[in-house]
Amino acid sequence: MVKDMGVVCSGQKNMRVLFLAPEVFYSPGGIQTYNQQLVNALRDLGYNLKVVSLNDAVRFSLKGYFFVGAGRFKFLKKILFILYALKETIFFKPVLIISAHINFSLCCAFINRFFKIPFFTVIYGIELEKTKWLNKLAVKSAKKIISISNFTKEKFLALFPPVKREDVFIIYPFVDVNKFRPHTKDLSLLQRLGLAPSDKIILTVARLSKEEKYKGYDRVILAISGIIEELPQIRYIIGGGGDKEEIERIKVLVKEKGLKQKVILTGFIPAQELVNYYNLCDCFVMPSEREGFGMVFLEALACGKPVIAGNKDGSQEALKAGKLGLLVDPKDIFQLRQAITSIFKKEIDNRLLDGDFLRKAVVENFSREYFYKKVKELLEGMSN
User: Fold this and answer.
1) pTM for the whole thing?
2) How would you classify the pairing of strands 234-239 and 283-286?
3) Contacts of 283 (CB under 8 A, 6+ apart)
4) Which ranges in the chain are annotated with CATH 3.40.50.2000?
5) Whole-angstrom Cα distance, residue 151 to residue 310?
6) Which helix or strand (DSSP H or E) is residue 44 part of?
7) What are the pLDDT digits (tens) for 69-104?
């Protein structure tokens, strides 16, 4: 049980919840992390939980917690996912289904129609623009919508107008402050990347793909090209794997701007190494345009690092409307350039450079305890 959450509410141990996830352990990313947080909250709060995952390839059973992944059978996983979901519906007899992606809404609506089991749907942001019309129709049957941010909530309400505002429930993600915490720069990592202790390091953690260009890593490269003479020791690390075509596009851009010695593409960063990259940098920058929230901002702040983000999306909520970092127009290269320069020249509010202040603010505003409290509040209000 989680500390400070009190006694499990009456009947909670017997409340059967079926959780349908795109993935929980399969690959790193914001959706996966949020799914893990929801699953752990349900388990730790004492609900009788079964998880069916589309992409994971593991299967295990613990007391009050069963997990099965359809990803073991790559070419049949979609069919198996539906069969697993139906099997658990019939034999587990859940009183609630949580659809951890809007694309599962059709399956959940079918179950709701024939088995009278209510379902919640989780929304993140970018996926809402690509939702097929059948799932758009099906999600209207959801009893509640769990949104990762207010930005995503407003986006959802604009695209799905018949849904009532009060049926969209915001639960912000939290950051593991025990894992993401400040420590000295890893000298072996510096050496591996060919960097010097005196270098001024900017970091972005993002997947390099055509679908995620909105995160703005290419615009950071353009901004750096304009301040290199003023800040000759600046280095830019882009951490994350990606698609061959997009990686090649970025390499060409770096070459065109004469920044081959300034920009480092690390490729995929293992989860256990990520905290070392945050602590290696002097500033975390990701001027995204369509971020649902941005877990990476919380991770950087928990490590005490100054942050620059876009002012057009859910990034604003991660930075508490500018109270925890600089917000810029993500398409304005000049504004981005000024923000980077002002951090390294320390020409901004001292609190935004104060690692202790930034970490404390994350602990206070995005805690595990608050997340669990919101999950418990939502499920206890099911009957309303």
Assistant:
1) 0.91
2) unpaired
3) 200, 201, 202, 203, 305, 306, 307, 308, 340, 343, 344
4) 12-174+367-380, 187-365
5) 13
6) helix 30-44
7) 998 888 899 999 999 999 999 999 999 999 999 999
